[in-house]
């Protein structure tokens, strides 16, 4: 409670806002509405010095309340948004855009489309130029909805062709949506930004109409243009496209390289490692080892049997060939202090054995090589495995015992 | 000179003409609104008080408005306030005689009316055209922009920079800067000179009149009634007649956006009393409501403290002489006597008594409470002994609840009213549009507020906290006995507590730093802070003001000891 004795308009409204904030955080919509009712008269004062003025506050708070309040209807919501559009011309397009998002969340695609079209035709002196970015977004989202319509038409067409008839009208409509969508989507992805959904849709369109060159160019730009913010998805999209196009392993590998740098724990690292391991080039194989070790640094991968099997396979291969043991040593150097507790504790040995024998098998192999046959993990799992008379565990035991000197070389 | 009516005040027919062409009665100097050409009865709001207007007065302007002067506006405000006070039970004398006489006296002394306007000062509406040329010719006159950016001490419209900027953008052709004739001039007057009238000062006038009549309303109560809406203050201009168009700089004068502060109203009242050359106010005797003995009784009840404490407050009052007529009665212009804040003083006396009996050092009072509790458990006959702990818990609970309510009310306060305000004709449509939007939004979200209806204005009540002896839960402590903390010594009842700690050893110079002491919560016991907090809630003032009075009382009470100690240069302990 504040013992403010010199109470004035500003302090009173500040206090009001903090009550609104509390109510919103606790999802007390009625209470928030109650205080907002008292706050709205701030509109009649000028707050041009403030960073966020009352009109913006009211827009944002009112939107939240109307969206969540049980007694509020979509009709009321729309009516409110229309009012907010008139409140601040500098924010007009932003309000339109957010309104559209809400309509989309509510499944009102047609209304959303109408609002977007209306907003697109808005002109207001120099504001039009100032709000250029918002306008681009509006056009882009309309393009997105056009894509959505195109997609619907495409599905209808495919159905019909399966049934044996061709539908010219549907086809023409489909093409017209394509043209409309393509124009706007192309525009937005020129601007540096994160446009995953637009890029995906645009590429989908291009691929359908066979313009693979353009698609490739778009994806390359999106992934490699330094003006664009670093975006792992860009590389994923490029990779998947190249895969679809049947590109060579070389280009696939190069597409995933940056992804590994940005997101070492990405799920595609398994594919990456698999490709790298098989490579004839030494550098690539080396990278493969690095990649799989890096992935397993992350907690999310701890129980991933596939990842462990990749690592196990590569480690085994290196040990058998007796070449490049220094690779393992290098990778292990920075991990030997914490991987044992992280992956190879006795507790985990028990748990892994109980829950997933394959996982424990792969891990035991790695543990046996890295930590030697006397390490907790290996001992427990191999013991259990032999007790259960599983052949592969017996083989495992033999293998590790045979290659124990390797451990000594690695750990030294 | 064919005006033959009898003067309303003295019934003579002895008319003269003022400079402005008005008739005035030569016998009693009562001035009428009547001019030679036109009989203008528009602004006779109070038939006993009439104002002088200078300059020729047009009957109607184009937009249905007419010329009016700032002091007429204030007169209306005072009238409304007086009516409200009358509705609250104040005697009608206040409105009809005291207040209006004070007002008339003020107008005369500040040369706004009832006098010859000093040569060289002409009143005219300030237009942009004029100001832009005048600025060159009269460098001493502050520019309009400067005027608007002046921050009023009251904080009126301080944050309203759009007004300032919209004015600066206004082109040469616009000329409506104030609806009133002298709005701009009013603001430009040197504040130091003639005690320029402001909205908070209207309350000073009211308080002065109430004090003169020794009405049972303290200043803190008056201000509380203002905040609760029982006395017009915020948006009082709504009640101005249609023809009195309020816009432009008038808004700076009449639209308040902050609540009046006790100190400010209090100090202004004293300035005013001196300015008006008022004589000694009617005596405040021990049968007056404002006498510390009476107020202490009221506050003790409200604070849910035992009635027996009243004996002690009376003793303290008597001992330090603050119950004396000469101490309590206001002598305007006398700079040597300390101005008495009756309510704060009474509260401070109670705090000192509590310190005397309970020490309030966060230990002793709880100890005493434990003894009392023991005794109450084992001995149910003969009425309960007062337990500090129980009292604390009960009062704290109520206080916290009330404080929470108050905080929410303050956050929900609505400052605007239906009557829209515009600075100039240019932004009128914008203002109206905004108003409409606000109303729409209020309706929309008001419906979503659920069953929570905005609480209607509470009935004005003198007591904010009430405790009933009929409650069987023992939450009323009025009848509790102080036996547990008292002992008999030489036939006299004294406190068991042998110690006392002074709030401050040395008082500050009030004239230099504004306070007698500087209160910081962390430096004092929690119990003390709690007690200060209780009264600061009841009086709606900062705890530090009560702390100041406590310091003052303590220094009077322990004067001898202090003097002796300081003389021998030792530090007074506890």
Question: How would you summarize the topology of this molecule?
Answer:
The complex is a heterodimer of chains A (412) and B (574).
Chain A: H1 9-25, H2 29-39, H3 54-68, H4 74-87, H5 92-105, H6 109-120, H7 126-130, H8 132-163, H9 168-188, H10 196-208, H11 212-224, H12 232-244, H13 249-262, H14 269-277, H15 282-295, H16 305-321, H17 325-333, H18 339-343, H19 346-355, H20 357-371, H21 376-387, H22 391-402, H23 404-411
Helix pairs in contact in A: 1-2, 2-3, 3-4, 4-5, 5-6, 5-8, 6-8, 8-9, 8-10, 9-10, 10-11, 11-12, 12-13, 13-14, 14-15, 14-16, 15-16, 16-20, 17-23, 19-20, 19-21, 20-21, 20-22, 20-23, 21-22
Chain B: E1 15-17, E2 22-25, E3 31-35, H1 70-87, H2 93-109, H3 128-137, H4 144-149, H5 161-169, H6 183-188, H7 191-194, H8 199-212, H9 219-227, H10 249-254, H11 262-275, H12 292-302, H13 309-320, H14 325-328, H15 342-358, H16 364-378, H17 388-411, H18 428-447, E4 486-489, E5 492-495, H19 510-513, H20 526-539, H21 543-557, H22 559-567
Antiparallel strand pairs in B: 1-2, 2-3, 4-5
GO molecular function (chain B): RNA polymerase I core promoter sequence-specific DNA binding; zinc ion binding
Subcellular location (chain B): Nucleus, Nucleolus
Pfam families (chain B): Rrn7_cyclin_C, Rrn7_cyclin_N, Zn_ribbon_RRN7
């Amino acid at each position: 409670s504040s013992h403010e004795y010199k109470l004035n308009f500003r302090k009173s409204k500040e206090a009001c806002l903090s009550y609104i904030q509390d109510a919103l955080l606790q999802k007390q919509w009625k209470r928030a509405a109650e205080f907002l009712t008292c706050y709205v008269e701030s509109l009649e004062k000028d707050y041009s010095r403030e960073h966020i003025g009352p009109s913006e506050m009211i827009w944002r708070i009112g939107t939240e309340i109307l969206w969540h309040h049980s007694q509020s209807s979509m009709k009321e919501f729309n009516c409110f948004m229309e009012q907010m559009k008139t409140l601040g011309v500098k924010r007009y397009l932003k309000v339109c855009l957010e309104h559209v998002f809400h309509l989309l969340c509510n499944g009102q695609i047609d209304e959303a489309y109408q609002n977007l079209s209306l907003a697109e035709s808005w002109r207001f002196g120099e504001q039009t130029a100032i709000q250029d970015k918002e306008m681009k977004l509006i056009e882009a989202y309309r393009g997105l909805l056009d894509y959505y319509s195109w997609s619907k038409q495409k599905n209808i067409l495919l159905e019909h062709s399966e049934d044996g008839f061709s539908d010219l009208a549907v086809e023409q409509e489909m093409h017209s949506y394509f043209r409309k969508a393509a124009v706007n989507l192309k525009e937005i992805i020129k601007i540096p930004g994160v446009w995953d959904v637009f890029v995906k849709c645009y590429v989908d369109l291009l691929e359908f109409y066979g313009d693979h060159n353009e698609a490739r160019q778009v994806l390359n730009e999106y992934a490699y243009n330094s003006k664009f913010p670093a975006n792992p998805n860009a590389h994923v999209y490029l990779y998947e496209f190249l895969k679809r196009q049947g590109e060579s392993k070389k280009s696939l590998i190069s597409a995933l390289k940056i992804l590994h740098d940005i997101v070492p724990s990405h799920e595609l690292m398994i594919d990456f490692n698999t490709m790298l391991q098989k490579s004839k080039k030494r550098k690539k194989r080396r990278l493969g080892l690095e990649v799989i070790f890096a992935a397993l640094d992350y907690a999310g991968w701890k129980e991933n049997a596939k990842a462990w099997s990749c690592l196990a396979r590569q480690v085994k291969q290196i040990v058998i060939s007796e070449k490049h043991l220094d690779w393992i040593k290098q990778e292990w150097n920075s991990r030997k202090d914490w991987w044992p507790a992280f992956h190879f504790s006795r507790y985990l040995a028990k748990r892994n054995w109980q829950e997933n024998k394959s996982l424990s098998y792969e891990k035991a192999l790695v543990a046996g090589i890295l930590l030697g046959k006397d390490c907790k993990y290996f001992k427990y799992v191999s013991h259990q495995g032999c007790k259960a008379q599983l052949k592969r565990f017996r083989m495992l035991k033999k293998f590790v015992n045979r290659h124990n000197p390797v451990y000594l070389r690695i750990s030294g | 000179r064919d005006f033959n009516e009898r003067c309303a005040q003295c019934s003579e027919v002895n008319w003269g003409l003022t400079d402005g062409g008005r008739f005035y009665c030569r016998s009693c100097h009562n001035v009428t609104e009547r001019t030679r050409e036109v009989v203008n009865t528009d602004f006779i709001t109070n038939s006993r008080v009439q104002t002088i207007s200078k300059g020729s007065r047009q009957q109607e302007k184009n937009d249905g408005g007419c010329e009016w002067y700032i002091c007429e506006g204030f007169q209306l405000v005072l009238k409304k306030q007086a009516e409200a006070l009358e509705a609250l039970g104040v005697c009608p004398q206040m409105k009809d005689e005291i207040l209006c006489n004070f007002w008339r006296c003020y107008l005369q002394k500040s040369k706004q009316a009832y006098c010859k306007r000093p040569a060289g000062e002409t009143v005219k509406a300030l237009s942009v055209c004029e100001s832009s040329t005048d600025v060159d010719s009269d460098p001493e006159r502050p520019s309009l922009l400067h005027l608007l950016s002046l921050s009023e001490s009251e904080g009126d419209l301080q944050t309203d920079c759009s007004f300032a900027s919209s004015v600066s953008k206004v082109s040469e052709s616009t000329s409506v800067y104030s609806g009133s004739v002298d709005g701009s001039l009013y603001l430009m007057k040197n504040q130091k000179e003639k005690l320029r009238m402001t909205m908070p000062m209207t309350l000073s006038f009211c308080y002065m009149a109430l004090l003169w009549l020794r009405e049972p309303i303290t200043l803190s109560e008056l201000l509380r009634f203002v905040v609760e809406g029982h006395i017009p203050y915020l948006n009082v201009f709504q009640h101005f007649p249609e023809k009195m168009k309020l816009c432009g700089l008038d808004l700076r004068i009449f639209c308040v956006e902050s609540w009046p502060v006790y100190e400010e109203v209090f100090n202004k009242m004293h300035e005013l009393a001196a300015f008006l050359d008022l004589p000694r106010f009617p005596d405040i005797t021990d049968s007056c409501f404002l006498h510390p003995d009476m107020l202490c009784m009221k506050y003790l009840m409200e604070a849910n403290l035992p009635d027996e404490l009243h004996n002690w407050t009376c003793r303290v009052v008597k001992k330090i002489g603050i119950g004396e007529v000469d101490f309590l009665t206001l002598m305007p212009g006398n700079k040597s006597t300390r101005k008495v804040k009756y309510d704060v003083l009474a509260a401070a006396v109670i705090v000192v008594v509590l310190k005397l009996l309970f020490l309030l050092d966060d230990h002793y009072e709880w100890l005493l409470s434990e003894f009392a509790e023991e005794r109450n458990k084992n001995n149910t006959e003969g009425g309960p002994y007062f337990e500090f702990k129980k009292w604390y818990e009960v009062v704290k609970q109520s206080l916290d609840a009330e404080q929470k309510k108050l905080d929410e009310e303050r956050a929900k306060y609505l400052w605007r009213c239906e009557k829209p305000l515009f600075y100039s004709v240019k932004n009128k449509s914008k203002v109206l549009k905004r108003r409409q939007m606000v109303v729409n939004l209020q309706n929309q979200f008001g419906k979503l507020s659920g069953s929570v209806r905005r609480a209607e204005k509470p009935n004005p009540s003198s007591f904010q906290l009430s405790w009933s002896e009929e409650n069987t839960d023992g939450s009323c402590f009025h009848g509790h006995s102080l036996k547990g903390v008292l002992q008999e010594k030489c036939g006299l009842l004294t406190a068991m507590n042998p110690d006392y700690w002074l709030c401050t050893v040395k008082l500050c110079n009030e004239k230099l730093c504004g306070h007698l002491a500087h209160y910081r919560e962390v430096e004092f016991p929690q119990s003390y802070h709690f007690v200060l907090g209780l009264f600061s809630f009841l009086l709606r003032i900062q705890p530090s003001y009560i702390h100041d009075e406590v310091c003052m009382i303590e220094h009077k009470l322990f004067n001898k000891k202090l003097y002796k100690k300081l003389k021998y240069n030792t530090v007074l302990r506890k």
